[in-house]
Model the fold of this input.
Amino acid sequence: MGVLADTLQGPAVDWFSISPLLVLLGGALVLLTVAALTPPWPKRWYAVFAAKCAVAAGVLSVLLWRQIDSEGSTTLVGDTLVLDKPAVWIAITICLAVFLCALVTDDYLRREGIDGPELYALYLLAALGGIVMAAANDLIVLFLGLEILSIALYVMAASHRKRAESQESGIKYFVLGGFSSAFFLYGVALIYGGAGSTNFNKIVAAMEPTVGSDRTNDALVLAGIALLLVGLAFKVAAVPFHFWTPDVYQGAPTPVTAFMASAGKAAAFGAMLRVLLEALPNWSDDYRPAVWMIALLTLVGGSVMAVVQTNVKRMLAFSSVSHAGFILVGVEAAAHRPGAPMGGDGVSSVLMYLLIYSVLVIGTFGVVTAVGRTGDSATDLAGFRGLAKQKPALALAMTLLLLAQAGVPLTSGFVAKFGVISAAVDVHSYAIAIAAMVSAVIAAFIYLRIMVSMWITDEEAGDVAREPVRVPALLTVAIAASVGFTLVVGLFPGWLINITP
Amino acid sequence: MIDFPILTMLVLMPAIGAVLVALASKRHPDLVKITALGSSVLTGGFSLWVLFAFEKGEAGFQFTSQHAWIRPWGISWHLGVDGISLFLIVLTGVLFPLVIAGIDSHSKSMSDQKRYLSWMLLIEAGVMGSFISLDLFLFFVFFEIVLVPMYFLIGGWGYEKRVYAATKFFLFTMVGSAFMLVGIIATALLAKADDGRVTFDLIKIAENADFAASTGRWLFFAFAIAFAVKVPLFPLHTWLPDAHTQAPTGGSVILAAVLLKMGTYGLLRFGIYLFPEAAVWSRPLFFTLATIGIVWGAIAATMQTDLKRIVAYSSVAHLGFIVLGTFALTTTAVSGGVMQNINHGLSTGALFILVGMIYERRHTRQIAELKGLQKVAPVFAGVFMIVMLSSIGVPGLNGFVGEFMVLVGSFATARWWVTVAAAGVILAALYLLWAYQRVFHGEPDEANQGFEELKWKEASLLFPIVGLIVFTGVYPKPMLERIEPSVKAFIEHVEQHSEYNEPSPGEPVIVEEEHGED
Amino acid sequence: MELFVFVVAAGMVLGGAVGVIVRSHPVHAALSLVLTLFGVAVLFVAQEANFLAAVQVIVYAGAIVVLFLFVIMLLGVDKVEDLRIEPFKIQRPAAVAVGAGLLSMIALAIIVSRDAKPPTVTQSEAVQAALDGSHDSNIRAIARDVFSDHVLAFELTSVLLVIAVVATVMLARKPRKGEST
Amino acid sequence: MTAAAVTVTTTWYLLLAAALFALGVVGVMVRRNPLILFMCIELMLNAVNLTFVALARRFGDIGGQSIVFFVMVVAAAEVVVGLGIIVAILRRKPNATTDDLAELRG
Amino acid sequence: MLDLIWLIPALPLTGFLVILLFGRKLGDPRSGYFATLMVAASFAVTVGVFIDLMSLTSEERSGHVQTLFSWIPSGSLHVDLAFLADPLSLTMCLFVTGIGSLIHLYAVGYMHGDARFSKFFLYLNLFAFSMLMLVLGSNMLVTFLGWEGVGTCSYFLIAFWHEKESAATAGKKAFITNRVGDWGFMMAMFIAFWAVGSLDYSIVNGGGAGMASSTSTAIALFCFVGACGKSAQLPLYLWLPDAMEGPTPVSALIHAATMVTAGVYLMVRINPLLGVADSYAPTVIAIVGAATALFAATIAVAQNDIKKVLAYSTISQLGYMFLAVGSGAYVAAIFHMVTHAFFKALLFLGAGSVIHGMHHQQDMRYMGALRKLMPVTAFTFIIGWLAIAGVPPFAGFWSKDEILLFAYDKSPILYVVGLVTALLTAFYMTRQVIMVFFGKARWHDAHEEHGAHGDLTPHESPTTMVLPLVVLAGLSIVGGIIQLPSWSWIPKDLAHRLENWLGPIVHGNEHELSTSAHDLSGMLALVAITIALAGIAAAFLVYSKHKVKPFEPQILADGWGYDRAVSWVMGKPGRKAFDGVAWADAHVIDGAVNGSGSLVRGTAGQIRKVQSGNVRNYAAAIGGGVVLLLLWFVIARGIL
Done:
């Protein structure tokens, strides 16, 4: 009888604002369906297509950026997504990552004989999840984004059927990932219990009155925050939730590792900033010390653990842990100035770091991909021996990228570190700043080791017999791009700093 | 003339050269060498131009050029030269061509040779940059970037334990600069308070910002650690013997002659200049460390069995004098320190060259395996003797002038330390003469019979340096009158920003007329 | 009455959970899981979440557990896991410690904040209308909520399922020649 | 009935859920069979669901329930993928326990 | 002529440069003659300047400064490269260049045929230059320049035959021991500069009145430390005996006539400071001087090496000079310096001639009865002997007597010590003369021992060597003329010439003899003479007539074992300490550096065990993290 009376009004949807998501989704679906129906595409097409989708999404994001410039930031789809600069920034970062990873992946797949559209589709979908994470305005949406990204990554990690390591890394990542996201979800539940909603604005609103007054009644929320932190810390690979990182990074197909280290980290940190600064600004005093501690552990732990490694992928895994520590320093700095819509040096320094590091790490793993040779197994230091003789250009590129990771001036890495450190210093957390720099020195040791084996160590008898290192076209493009970016940003960082929100 | 960006050229010329060398084709080896030499010679030419165009009486910075680099962070490409940095530039400009032309890198292949040369030129660019940059950030960039080529130089062309030495050098120095980077940022951000926008400009900060005493001291130490490592100041010196010994001759020369000076120069220009109060406050510490360094380095040198290590440790001792003079903060002492930078560069550089030649001839640096070289190679021995005497600090050679000025200048403010430091002069004679006796005196055994006399090529590399050694020793006035005004201004700056007052000696009873001003 | 239901259901839930942890045979573990799931379903009903209760039984107890059993049977991985031996000495104490710590902390939090005034939650009028509606309000309300306030989340779940499909395709697809598993 | 004197508040449910969650955690840490390890994760998710539902009732908010609905989907997806990976591995080495899957270490 | 002072050092410098460039071409002997010519020319110039100066009144004689250029102008420190022409510096120049040229000439013969002939004169000229810088310097720093220069040259020349291990070592020893003294000199300069703001003698000396007596004392004593090093006084005399390793002309020029007197010169130069210094300062100097004199004399008694005897006697005579300085007898000090330069140079050259004739045999036990074979050498040597023994009217007598006179006035003890030294001096010199020139020829034994062949009969030396001997002999006879005592029978205008000449330098600070001493002077002279004769007589009894068994205990031969003690300290505990430092540097300091490195590796090695690769452990770690976080949030932040 009253059926006509209550026709459902869904929330208004500004399709343009979510167009990047749609492009990525569409791209993935096309790859899956069309590729499934058509005979295998000629080589490179899958990769190029995926790359194009990423570019398209990126371009749209840039347009959105313009729009924000003119009309300011808004929320979308019934308050569940935010459209603001950090969100778009992360989106662009992720698209860039997808673009480069696609190029790196192309020849890799054919080399390993597992060609096919699925992996690219997963890139795109994972990217979608990541963007959602960074743009979420609702814990559940954020959680779903997280799951999309994670599950995609589980599969990708396990996708190299020939290598037992690949599958082992898959299962490990999966189990621990599920474990930690259960914690995250429980955290969401507890916060829901305290705030009566999972929407950021509502949470802030609901908690406003209790702030300052007697705090006992939000113990639930505090417990929730703890569990949320666990979930996020796991994703960004912060000590002591980092244990999966080396194993997974080493086991996963190298291009996938690159994707994890770039897009994965970017999304996770985007989400972390959202949760801590947007949803829980009133608790900054509570979680800042925790973040501080985690940052310290991550910095030191990552660098120290890296020192004893001999497998380059593992080294880079630990170095990515210590990079996460650096970014956490920025987060800690940002947490001194919560509230104010994603403002403050902290946030921008983190965002800049994410972009720079993503490009950097993909380039690095790109080189590793090439050096890994067929079977993706020659990734220990010995694999790099005498690379300078065999492929001077490649060695030089790797050297530059490593120096950048070490934070040597005139490279993008230095700019990134500089930004984070100055953010920390600006809020007078000197101790963590110095700790960060010192641990950077420790980490530098492993980069030097890699350089040594490329440039200085003499080749041994067996080395000449090894399969030569091939650097196919698309991979070259990817590496060249990231090296170029590294140098340009290193020499003229002004513009980048200017545009970072 | 000023509108020609000559200082910028000092940095760019070698950098461009490095790139060209790297790109040059392997098929024209001579072309590679010529490119490298050409760019370094040009750079040297520019540095000499700076020297001659330099206004004598001027205390302030000359040839300054400033362009915004990273606006959002208030960082600019700000270069300038004053009396304190002038001769460091000239030394760098003159030494590099000599090293590039005169010292064989013993590269295995042509591509090796190319790499060697471009690393060399990169070092030159970095060193030049750090001597002329007037922007904290810019300085740090140069200060840090030098590590990389040096690392590869030691690691790639060094001796037995080269990788260990190179890594040690890289990480050790990096730890130091880790603190400095934080210090630099903190300085800039704290200085911001006064005038809204952030700036990394050395002069602006030094003139405007006044930090609370405690803050200033923390910041000062953040800087000082980095420089102390670079100098190297006892007890942060142990990277140096390894680096020096393992580096190829060219590397050792550069390392000793110019790289270490980035430390002493930094202490002066960035440490004390920015934080006079803290510097004055912490002088006893630095006096003590410097003095210990002088004695300790000398003693350690005496006991070395490796000729190159002796020279390396002698650097520790000599740099101790420079630090002592720098912190003594009297015009004479500071000028002496600045001058000693150059003197040490010349004499120790030459010593490393000579040791390198010995190694090339005998393929050993072990004193025990050398004997009676003076008999078979008297000229070689003679040159070695002159350089050694300058290093010992015998009057009439350059070493003495700086050393004496440092000591006499420091006596007023650091009496007891000077008393000890002066005793270090005895030790200098001890270890060098002992080494000389073991290597050059006595009857040469058959292994050393065939020791070649100094060749013309080698002579042409050494004689310019020897010439400078003698000239500076006999007639240092031209140098001093260019250094002095800047030093005076520097000390006035310190006096303004701290309660330190430069002591002046008791008034002479006879008026100054007797002293011919020229 | 309510108490009785809670106690029984709680018993099922915990009993099942303990079963999952201690039963050494995978199949038994799976069956204990079913027990837990049913208990949860009961509690759902007790919490007036009828629709969810139904889904719980159908999806979980039905699909998921069956899937588990299927895999167990298919791969014949029904090897009895000997729970008496534990390669890592500290593992179990650690497990207990963590479990106890976790439980105590959260329980503490819950108890401390039990009397806190629950925040006022306002339903979107569409949902409210559904709730006021006389018959099968729960399902209608969920439906309206899902398609209004949580529509994005709903769409995202679809993406999730797509990934699941791709995953199975990737992982299960017969390796082409040249590949060896 | 006298039993009605005692009212079952939301807190009871929350505590129960917490207990269930804790059991799940313990399970993950003690069981070696990947499948069972997996079930334990399911336990944890169920605990969360229970919490949501209880809270949803307390607030009279239907949103909580729809969240549970989504969680179930997530759980399903996870199971599918997880089982996929496990199958792939167990095909390679039957009866492998998680302890056997420790090639990557250090 | 006064403005030609610069020529005095310039000429030897020219010689140095020319020989440096063309030495090989000039060769042997031309380069030698050239060098000699240069020094001789500089002597000529000196004479010219000297005459100029003479013609001035005593007031005008002091403070003629010739500034070449400003050397180190920095801050308040202004050091010019300037020369000071005054009676003192000129006196020094005269005998430096005079005796210098003689010894150059001598060396032409002595070094004939040496492989590095020209190099020898290269060093010799450089030495002459440095020595002249030392004495002519108008400020302490220029003096120091020469001071170090002569030190370096003596290093070169001692180690001239560097193939000989002992020679090389001796050279090194000399340099380093001198460095110890230089430390004192530098300290003195530092204090002086900060006291008066300049290093010019005019200002430093003039400022003496103004500054605290403690300051002037410090300057004076630190200078004395330097002097001890240069002039081989206790405890730094060690290097001089070893320095005999050098060619004999070197020993004559550097280690007898000129360089070693630099210390005395310096003390006289700063006599105004000594004047205003605390009274104990001169006393210290006098005591050290006297002690050294006696100490060295005792050692000389038991030496068998012809040059070692002379070396110790030199040390002893220098002791006399410091005794004089300490007693305020600056003129006497200079007087003795000059006479000593004459006769000691003579003796050394004589000894050189003997060695030359004996085919480099230096051990006196293998000599004897040489007076027939080397008449000239013997004759001149005997004159030198009489001079040093203090037999009138030879030069040595007058100077030594005057010193003793002042010593007596300072303190009887010092006088007695001086007297005993005089006795010993006469004794050991007589001993030497007898062993070398008289008695029976013992040189065959040596040759048999050394199993040498051919005709090794000693022979007289060539003219180039003999000529200087004769000249010096003449000077040793009449040298006393320049400063005769004011005794009744001595014409007034002959007496105290040197004193009047040096008046402007020392007036006011020269000790005024008490009347008692003045009256006693004749008496004391007689005592001195008897003592000298007694010494000679005793030596005759022992060594010629063999009435008494010679008393030459080993302890004396070893120089009281002082040298050995010092080298033991340097060798054993000293070396230990050095090794300790080196060890600490390598293991403690660098150990800390490398240790921190291995610490990181170690911890990493431990942590990686946790990275076991097992999922359940990782889960446990995560769980632990969760609990910790909950502890923080729920307990620390929530409930507390």
In short: Chain A has 20 helices and two strands. The mean pLDDT of chain A is 89. The CA atoms of residues 146 and 365 of chain A lie 24 Å apart. Chain A touches chain E through 37 residues (CB under 8 Å).
